[in-house]
Amino acid sequence: MLEEAGIATVIIAAEAFRDRLEAMRVPRLLTTPHWMGRPLGRPGDVATQRETLRKALAQLERS
């Protein structure tokens, strides 16, 4: 619904979910090597969290 309304989205998920999400044909997908439930990285790991968000925002900028 968001994409249909012109609002671009990106899914950030653990690599373990890549196959399932690709099968769902999501518009944009960023997978990370982090644990399930922590797709941005460990709690308190601000540098990794920021880098993951930068990558996601870069995908949105290219859309």
Question: Can you offer a commentary on this structure?
Answer:
By secondary structure, this protein is of the alpha+beta class. It has helices spanning 18-23, 46-62; strands spanning 11-14, 29-32. Helix 1 links the parallel strand 1 (11-14) and strand 2 (29-32). The two termini are 16 Å apart. The relative contact order is 0.21.
Topology:
Elements: E1 11-14, H1 18-23, E2 29-32, H2 46-62
Parallel strand pairs: 1-2
Please identify the structural class as seen in this structure.
alpha+beta
What is the CA-atom radius of gyration, in angstroms? 12 Å
| DSSP E strands, number | 2
Report the sheet-strand fraction: 5-15%
**Element pattern in H and E:** EHEH
How many structural domains can be distinguished in the coordinates? 1
The helix content, as a percent range, equals 25-40%
Order of strands, widest sheet: 1-2
- What count of helical segments does DSSP give? 2
Morphology call: globular
Main β-sheet description: 2 strands, parallel
Distance between the termini: 16 Å
